TrEMBL record:
<feature type="transmembrane region" description="Helical">
    <location>
        <begin position="175"/>
        <end position="199"/>
    </location>
</feature>
<feature type="transmembrane region" description="Helical">
    <location>
        <begin position="21"/>
        <end position="41"/>
    </location>
</feature>
<dbReference type="Pfam" id="PF01490">
    <property type="entry name" value="Aa_trans"/>
</dbReference>
<feature type="transmembrane region" description="Helical">
    <location>
        <begin position="397"/>
        <end position="417"/>
    </location>
</feature>
<protein>
    <recommendedName>
        <fullName>Amino acid transporter transmembrane domain-containing protein</fullName>
    </recommendedName>
</protein>
<dbReference type="GO" id="GO:0015293">
    <property type="term" value="F:symporter activity"/>
</dbReference>
<feature type="domain" description="Amino acid transporter transmembrane">
    <location>
        <begin position="20"/>
        <end position="454"/>
    </location>
</feature>
<dbReference type="InterPro" id="IPR013057">
    <property type="entry name" value="AA_transpt_TM"/>
</dbReference>
<keyword id="KW-0472">Membrane</keyword>
<feature type="transmembrane region" description="Helical">
    <location>
        <begin position="112"/>
        <end position="133"/>
    </location>
</feature>
<feature type="transmembrane region" description="Helical">
    <location>
        <begin position="307"/>
        <end position="328"/>
    </location>
</feature>
<feature type="transmembrane region" description="Helical">
    <location>
        <begin position="371"/>
        <end position="391"/>
    </location>
</feature>
<dbReference type="GO" id="GO:0005886">
    <property type="term" value="C:plasma membrane"/>
</dbReference>
<comment type="similarity">
    <text>Belongs to the amino acid/polyamine transporter 2 family. Amino acid/auxin permease (AAAP) (TC 2.A.18.2) subfamily.</text>
</comment>
<feature type="transmembrane region" description="Helical">
    <location>
        <begin position="266"/>
        <end position="287"/>
    </location>
</feature>
<keyword id="KW-0812">Transmembrane</keyword>
<dbReference type="GO" id="GO:0006865">
    <property type="term" value="P:amino acid transport"/>
</dbReference>
C-alpha cells in the first residue's frame, strides 16, 4: 500500500526506492495536519495580548515569511548536482548537501529535539481535550460553577496505547489517510470555535476589545503586558512552523511534475487555508471575549453550551492529535531505524520483515525491531508527559529556539548558496535582515516562555491533575 495505490508501470523511482505517489492533495493534508493544531483555539488569547492591529498584522506577516522560506527549502530537495537520483530524504540530508560541516549536527539537534518535544506535548494536549469532554458533561449536569475534577492520566495512557498501534505504520508514505482525517477534524473543531464565537458576538454579551489589546493597570500589570506580548508573538510565529517536516513531506511526492513545484503549491494551499482559519478563529474569539479571552476556547471553557457540541469539538481535537503525533514521530522513527540498519546490516532482528495475518485488517508486514523500538518510544514519551504535565511550557521554549534555525536560517542560507547570491547586494541585505528580525522574535519569545515556565514550575505538584 502506498499513497494512492499506483500499480501500473515501474514500481520504483529514479533512486531505486518504492515509487512515490504523493500529490498536492496529500502534501497539503500533511501540512495542514502539522500546522493547524489545537493551538488555533488559543490565538484569541494571543490577539488579546497584542490587540486588533498588531495581532492581525503579525499573523499575516508570519504567514508570508513561512511560505517564502518554505519555497526556498522546497527548491533544495534535489542536491546541487541535480542528478536524477540525487534526492535528500531528510532535513539533515538537505543541510549536508548545501552547507555541510557542523551545521548538519546543529540542524539535527534542533529538529529532533523539537520533534520529541512536540510528541510529548501532543500527549498532554490530547489528554486535556479528553478530560474536557468529561468536564463538559459534568458542568451540564451540575451547573457551570460545580467542581468538576477528572484525572488526566488514564487519558494519557489511552492516547499512548493508540500511538503504539499507529506507530507500526512503516513510513511517511503510508500516512496520507491519517493526515486527510486530521485535516477534516481540524476544520471541524476550528469551525465550531468560530461558530460559537459568532453566536456570542451576535448575542451582544461580548468583552472589551481594543487596537492595542489588554490594558496596563486594568487587565494586566506592565510586566505581564510585556512578557505576554512576547509569548503571543512567539505563539503566532511558531503556529505556522511546518518546515521541521517539510523535506519528509516532499519526499512522498511523485517525481512528475517536479517535486519542488508541487510542494510550493501545497505550501501555498496549506498556509492560505491555515491563515484564513487563524484570522477567523483568533479574531472572532477575541471579539467574543475581549481582553479576557481564555487560553483555549474549548478546553478552558470559554463556552459551556451546547455541551454536546463542545464534546464533539474536543473529540475532533483528539483525533487530529492522534494523527499529528505520527506526522511528527515518523522522522524520528526513520532516523533511528536508518542508523541501525546501516550499523547492523546483517541482523535479521533489525532488517527482516515478516508477514502476519491480522483479523479484519489483512496481511501486514511486521519488523520486530520496529515493533520494539517504536513501542518503547511511545511509552517513554507518555511517561514523561505524566511526570511533567507542564511540558507545554517547555515546548514553547524548545519551539522558540527551533523556529529560527529550521524555519528561517537554514532555508535562507541554503537558498543563498544554491543561487549564489552576491554578498552585500540588495537581495543579500534583505535576506540578512529577514534572518536577523526572526532571530530577535525567537529570543523575545524564549524570554516569554522562560517566565511562563518559572510560573509553572513554582506551582508544580507531581502526579496532580492538570485542571487543579
Amino acid at each position: 500500500m502506498v499513497e494512492s495505490g499506483d500499480v501500473s508501470g515501474n514500481r520504483f523511482d529514479d533512486d531505486g526506492r518504492e515509487k512515490r505517489t504523493g500529490t498536492v492533495l496529500t502534501a497539503s493534508a500533511h501540512i495542514i495536519t502539522a500546522v493547524i493544531g489545537s493551538g488555533v483555539l488559543s490565538l484569541s488569547w494571543a490577539i488579546a495580548q497584542l490587540g486588533w492591529l498588531a495581532g492581525t498584522l503579525i499573523l499575516v506577516t508570519f504567514a508570508i515569511i513561512n511560505y517564502y522560506t518554505s519555497t526556498m527549502l522546497a527548491d533544495c530537495y534535489r542536491s546541487p548536482d541535480d542528478d536524477p537520483g540525487s534526492r535528500n530524504y531528510t532535513y539533515m540530508d538537505v543541510v549536508r548537501a548545501y552547507l555541510g560541516g557542523r551545521k548538519v549536527q546543529l540542524c539535527g539537534l534542533a529538529q529532533y529535539a523539537s520533534l520529541v518535544g512536540i510528541t510529548i506535548g501532543y500527549t498532554i494536549t490530547a489528554s486535556i481535550s479528553l478530560v474536557a469532554i468529561g468536564k463538559a458533561d459534568c458542568y451540564h449536569d451540575k451547573g457551570h460553577g460545580a467542581k468538576c475534577s477528572l484525572s488526566n492520566y488514564p487519558s494519557m495512557a489511552a492516547f499512548g496505547v493508540a500511538q503504539i498501534m499507529l506507530s507500526q505504520i512503516p513510513n511517511f508514505h503510508k500516512l496520507s489517510f491519517l493526515s486527510i482525517i486530521a485535516t477534516v477534524m481540524s476544520f471541524c473543531y476550528a469551525s465550531i470555535g468560530i461558530g460559537l464565537s459568532i453566536a456570542t458576538v451576535t448575542s451582544g454579551k461580548v468583552g472589551k476589545t481594543g487596537l492595542t489589546g489588554t490594558v496596563v493597570g486594568v487587565d494586566v500589570t506592565a510586566f505581564e503586558k510585556l512578557y505576554r506580548s512576547f509569548q503571543a508573538v512567539g505563539d503566532i510565529a511558531f503556529s505556522y512552523s511546518y518546515s521541521i517536516v517539510l523535506v519528509e513531506i516532499q519526499d512522498t511526492l511523485k517525481s512528475s511534475p517536479p517535486e519542488n513545484k508541487v510542494m510550493k503549491k501545497a505550501s501555498l494551499a496549506g498556509v492560505s487555508t491555515t491563515t484564513a482559519f487563524y484570522i477567523l478563529c483568533g479574531g472572532m474569539g477575541y471579539a467574543a471575549f475581549g481582553n479576557q479571552a481564555p487560553g483555549d476556547l474549548l478546553t478552558d471553557f470559554g463556552f459551556y453550551e451546547p455541551y454536546w457540541l463542545i464534546d464533539f469539538a474536543n473529540a475532533c481535537i483528539v483525533l487530529h492529535l492522534v494523527a499529528a503525533y505520527q506526522v511528527f514521530a515518523q522522522p524520528i522513527f526513520q532516523f533511528v531505524e536508518k542508523k541501525c540498519n546501516k550499523k547492523w546490516p546483517e541482523s535479521n532482528f533489525i532488517t527482516s520483515e515478516h508477514s502476519m495475518d491480522i483479523p479484519l485488517i489483512g496481511t501486514c508486514r511486521i519488523n520486530f525491531f520496529r515493533l520494539l523500538w517504536r513501542t518503547a518510544y511511545v511509552i517513554v514519551t507518555t511517561v514523561v508527559a505524566m511526570i511533567f504535565p507542564f511540558f507545554n511550557a517547555i515546548l514553547g521554549l524548545i519551539g522558540s529556539f527551533a523556529f529560527w534555525p529550521l524555519t528561517v536560517y537554514f532555508p535562507v542560507a541554503m537558498h543563498m548558496a544554491q543561487t549564489k547570491v552576491k554578498k552585500y547586494s540588495l537581495r543579500w541585505i534583505g535576506l540578512e535582515l529577514l534572518v536577523s528580525l526572526c532571530l530577535i522574535v525567537s529570543l523575545l519569545a524564549a524570554m516569554g516562555s522562560i517566565v511562563g515556565l518559572i510560573s509553572s514550575v513554582k506551582a508544580y505538584k507531581p502526579f496532580n491533575n492538570l485542571d487543579k
